[in-house]
Amino acid sequence: IPVAPFDLIVFGGTGDLARRKIIPALFRRYLAGQFEDGTRLIGAARAGLSPVEYRLFAKEALKEFSAEYDENSEGLEDFLNLLDYVPIDATGDDGWEELKTKTSTDRVQAFYFSVAPSLFGALAERLNSYEIAGSQARVVVEKPFGRDQETARALNATLAEHFDETQIYRIDHYLGKETVQNLMVLRFGNMMFEPLWNNHYIDHIQITVAETVGVGGRGAYYDKSGAMRDMVQNHLMQLLCLIAMEPPAIYDADALRDEKLKVIRALQPVAPHHIVRGQYEATDTAPGYREDAGNLRSFTESFVAMRCEIANWRWAGVPFYLRTGKKLRARTSEISIIFKALGHSIFEGDTTPHRNILSIRLQPNEGIDMTVTVKEPGPGGMRLIDVPLDLTFAEALREADAPEAYERLIMDVIRGNQTLFMRGDEVEAAWGWTDPIIEGWEARHDVPKQYVPGSSGPEDALMLLHRDGRRWRDIK
Length: 476
Ligand code: BG6
Description:
- NADP(+) binds at residues 12-19, 46, 143.
- Residues 9-182 form the Glucose-6-phosphate dehydrogenase NAD-binding domain.
- Its EC number is 1.1.1.49.
- The active site is at 235 (proton acceptor).
- The strands form 2 sheets. A 9-stranded mixed β-sheet has the order 14-13-12-11-7-10-9-8-15, with helices on both faces. A 6-stranded parallel β-sheet has the order 3-2-1-4-5-6, sandwiched between helices.
- With 476 residues, the protein is an alpha/beta fold.
- Helix 10 (253-266) packs parallel to helix 14 (424-444).
- It has helices at residues 16-31, 51-65, 74-82, 96-102, 120-129, 149-162, 178-188, 219-223, 226-244, 253-266, 289-293, 393-396, 405-415, 424-444, 459-466, and strands spanning 7-11, 40-45, 83-87, 109-113, 137-141, 168-170, 202-210, 275-280, 303-308, 320-325, 332-339, 357-363, 367-375, 384-392, 449-451.
- Helices cover 36% and strands 19% of the residues.
- The chain starts with 6 loop residues before the first strand and ends in a 10-residue tail after the last helix.
- It folds into 2 domains: 7-142, Rossmann fold; 175-466, Dihydrodipicolinate Reductase, domain 2 (2-Layer Sandwich).
- 6-O-phosphono-beta-D-glucopyranose (BG6) binds next to loops.
- The site of 6-O-phosphono-beta-D-glucopyranose (BG6) has 2 residues, from loops.
């Protein structure tokens, strides 16, 4: 469905995120026919480029990062012609008057701050002092949203000086993933799951976000952040919230975010022996984390596994095991709900504790599978086996062409729908939970365990579950 003409201004328009994600996402939405005539897409950055040079930059970005790129297509040319560019000094005065002439205050204006958080204040301030932002202005900010609760609070306060919370869109791109949204529909659009969704029937929950890439190329950023800040505080926490939250009365931004916030507040502090940190080691052929990070004495973790607890009626006694890391065996993100084993089997000789497992795969091969126990075919009596009921979305729903996270999120900004964005208090609360963990590591000079690239992380991570008589699902 086309949206009324709008202005999108990308500060940091020549940056990596613009190249990899924002420009390709806009191109796809353009090809899908969502932009009406009059829509303006404006890059803004320090570089003194002309609009023509910016179009070349965008063309190169699409060539590298867009599957839809076709050198001779009309669509490509038309899209590139939509792009404009303004060289701008975020902390000075250059460029702001020019930007003002290129956007109008009587329509939706989305200002995408794809820049270092230290510039948020300067940008927000100038958008108002130059009277560039109108009443339908929105700002979009990316992670890292602070590096602890104090800095996140300061960022929120800075933005709040210039914009209302309803105008601020904090991106966590995991919320834009098709399957993540499906998680809510699965829970709240079906009769059969929700009655079982509690500590009476669920034994434990596992959330794994495994990557095969290392940190090479972004070592300088990553070494200051580590897996906890880079992945757990935001992406894994969001997944955990969606699984654990109470049903909101309606599917609406604040109703949903209120429920997520309650989950974060009910998360218990994590004892040091319930967390394992890891760093991938060097191999004969590939550098290890420390070389990739350019810091041979680094104590930063590229892997973290932890056992979390949510202290409320629904979840008391159900551990949530979270795990994420770089250079692991496979790229796979999965949430698994492991139900309790049957208390008693009526089938003679059947001693296996059969468990139903509901597994939601976020990527790759988005889908859901459910392990159920059935009779093994054949005349051999009542032998039971566990088999998957598999629903791969691409096949079942012909959804292979679903919009990418950034496409959906950018269009939600334009439409003014904050449901899939984090509210300020939510982000602060999430830091409030991770801060003591990180401070503990720093105070103890905690040294991450080494792990072999291509493995499933350090041995100790396996122990985390073994101790509880459980095991991780395979990373495959
Ligand atoms: C980013 C992290 O937010 O998410 C990266 O900074 C990580 O370190 C990426 O690789 C993973 O995203 P996705 O969509 O590829 O799972």
